[in-house]
Structures are given as structure tokens and as C-alpha cells.
Amino acid sequence: MKQTLITLVALTALQASASGLESLDTFVSTVKSGHAEFTQVVTLPAKDGQTAHHKTSSGEFDFSRPNKFKFSYKKPFEQLIVADGRRVWMYDTDMNQVSSRKQSDVYAASPVALIASSSNMKAIEADFDLSPAPASQGIEWVVATPKSKDGMLQSIRIGFKDTHLEKIEILDGFGQRSLMTITAMQINPAMPSNIFQFKPPAGADVIQQ
């Protein structure tokens, strides 16, 4: 009887988590663009007996398939990250400094590629191994592990609630964990044509790689 109960619990967990993959598939195939607010908590691992350190930031996030996105950090410091399909631009407002890299060099195995790249799951599976994870607190999880071992990411967890994107959790190679909570998401909104265009401000220090 005990073994049967354990088996039933395990099967229930697997069935619940399997829908996380279904939610990702639905999200990728039906959500062509989006606008949302986010709060990001970065946890730095403890060192030399010290406790773990947390950094919190917040802002807005926009994306449009394929391969265009914009993160507008508002607090505690203003920062802009824009991908126009060819290059990724990062603008630090306080330093008035812009850095730019080819999108193909940084994008394929990035967290944003999971939610803003192709509308085809097969394209995502070319860069990530996807597996279901147990649901918790009403959120269904998918674990994405980059197939390339050259990057800085260990794994990415994506959480859905009723097929709505709720959370993105990133673990990097240094043990740093970043949890992004998505709120007030608008699905397939009308967007200005120039929203993903970036022009360095006058007088900004521009570094291109």
C-alpha cells in the first residue's frame, strides 16, 4: 500500500510538471509579442563565511518575435538593453556609456532566446535540453539546460501559471542565481515600429565588439 501511494504521488508530480512543457509550447507558438513589468532578485553566493547577498532591480520588458527585445531597468539605476535582431545594445544612463555586440554572439543560449526567439519549439530545442520540473505554488516549471558548454549559464527555469509566463530563474557558472518575476503582462499588444531601434545618445562613449 505504501509503495502504491509513493508511485501515485510520483505520477501526479510528473503529470503536473509535464504541462510546463505544454505551456512553453503554447507560449512560444501563440505569443508573438509582449509587454510586461518585472522585478529581478539576484542572489550572490556566500563567500568566506559571509551570508548570501541579494540585489533587487525592476523595470519593463518588451519583446517581438523573432529575436527582438528591450529591457528598461528603472530601479535602483536606469539601464537599457535593446536587441534589434542584429545587435544587442546596452546603455548605462549614469555613465553615459553604450556597449554593443553582435546578437548572434550572445543570444542563442540566453534566457531571452527561450521566450523571444522563434515560434518553433524545434528551434529552441536546438540550443537547449528541455525537461519538466515539479509544479510548486501553482506554477508549472520547465528546466532548460544549454547544449553548448561554452557559455556562462548552468540552467534556466521558466515558470508558467495557466500558460501565462510568471517567472524566469537563471543559475550561472559562478553559482549566482537570478529570479525574475513577471507581472502585468500584455499579450500581442500593438507596438511602435521603432521600439526596438537604438541610437546612441549624443556624447555617449560607445564600445562595439
Quickly list its features.
single chain; outer membrane lipoprotein receptor (LolB), chain A; twelve-stranded mixed sheet; 4 helices; 47% strand
Structure commentary:
The protein contains four helices and twelve strands; from the N terminus they run H-E-E-E-E-E-E-H-H-H-E-E-E-E-E-E. It has 209 residues and is of the alpha+beta class. The chain has a single domain (2-208), classed as outer membrane lipoprotein receptor (LolB), chain A.
Cα radius of gyration in angstroms = 19 Å
How many β strands by DSSP? 12
Low-confidence stretches: 1-18
Tally of helical segments = 4
Instruction: Please identify which CATH superfamily we are dealing with.
Output: Lipoprotein localisation LolA/LolB/LppX
Residues in helix, %:
10-25%
**Principal-axis shape:** globular
Give helix and strand order, one letter per element, not per position: HEEEEEEHHHEEEEEE
Average pLDDT works out at 84
Number of domains: 1
Instruction: Note the gap between the termini.
Output: 63 Å
Strand line-up across the major sheet:
7-8-9-10-11-1-2-3-4-5-6-12
CATH topology: outer membrane lipoprotein receptor (LolB), chain A
What fraction of the residues are assigned to beta strands by DSSP? Answer: over 45%
- Sketch the major β-sheet: 12 strands, mixed
CATH class: Mainly Beta
Overall CATH architecture: Clam
Structural class: alpha+beta
